[in-house]
Amino acid sequence: MTSFQRSGKTAPRLVQDIYEYDPAHPPATGRNLLADVPPVFPEYYNGPLEHISSAACRHNFVSKPAQSYVPQSEQGNTGASTKVSAVCLMCRYHLQVEVSSTPGIGQPSTRFSDHVHHLVYKSGKHRGGAAPEEVSPKGQMLEMFHYECSYLSCSVAVSLRFASPVLNDDRVRLLTDPEVLRQRANEAFAAHPDRLEGVAPPTPINVLLNLRTYISNALLDSQQSKSISAVNKRFMTCFGVEGKPCKDLLEFLGFSSKVCKLALEYVLAICNVINTSTRTKAFGNLLDRIRGQSFPIAINSRYFSMTLYTNLQRSSNRGQCYYEDLGVVEDMAASSIIEAFNRQVSVDPARTPVYLKCLKSIGILRGGEDGSLIDQAVQVAYSEGKYTEEDVVDAYKYFGLSHDDQRLTEESIIGKFYAYLGATTAVQETETRRQLWRIGDSRRSERIKAAAEESTTELTQPK
């Protein structure tokens, strides 16, 4: 059995984070959205509040069919992984998502499991991690993240792989800058005036479509995969006389005596700028598989978002951090948020005070029926001995102490407790003991907790 001891996130939260994670633009905090655990901003944190850079790309992914594999649902749980590769049409970052499960373990193979997956980060190679990111033979920066579902009855694992663009900005400029294309075409017209008479100068889309054709033929149609004549009209107008202005670029892509298939597949995805709707759907289907069960949406989800914006001033990040710390999204129903709280506590009990604060705060923010349902869960947690960080601060104040007083010892705290206990009524004693127990539990002090749990007749006052 895997021992997690680390916070996780629901599958819908992971999907949202995938769209918001931009390796090229890390936030001011240096926090890694896909690997670092909550709290996003611990209590009394005085550093920058940015957890997603304002320059980060909000990805628009389309899938790459040649690098994807989605088994049919009727195949059953054969152990075959679902893998979909995609590229962002905005920043050209590449993403590969793989979902796997162990045959015969956990839930039977169906389109959706009977729960929303709660995914815990296990390992990876990425910026700021124990193992650094890798570099591909083509110079791409590669980051990897691996997760497991925390439900003991579920064997689902999810792996993510981000890769920086194949072509750098200078190479993209060679293919798309209108002035560069015009100059290159004019040189070709001057070198071969008769042959190119009447040929129009190419536009950026012409260049990309022609490059796409060459790559498609090399990869997908061996019958049409043949040498390209250096005096071919389209080739010259797009890539210059004998292709010399683009020689380094073409060789980088593998256009030589031996085709570099992987590089061509990546660039084909970039050049393939048409028919994106079906490929977008394919990527969406994979995200459904990551999510697992179709989670219930809160009826007033739009209102909740508006409340966060107006009442908490969204730029402060505090409101959405309650959701992120619990590993949920803002439009989740209260029942799903409560279940996520229970999962977080089960896999990461040391951070229970953080998670209870988040649950309590979300209930207050939502109010109404959702707020009442969440408050019931909060009261259950309190009855089980759980507490928030603010409750610990209040516990110190109860005894006239300060939580950040470094001079406090077990003896001084217990002595203060006995002094208070001697002046309390039988009705007040229960509350006094509860406050001491919270201090002891937060300090990991068995001695303080034992003093709080002793009955009146068993107390032994320190001499």
UniProtKB/TrEMBL annotation:
Name of protein: Unnamed protein product
Source domain of life: Eukaryota
InterPro entries recorded: UCH_repeat_domain
Taxonomic placement: Eukaryota, Fungi, Dikarya, Ascomycota, Pezizomycotina
All copies of domain UCH repeated, residue ranges: 323-366, 391-450
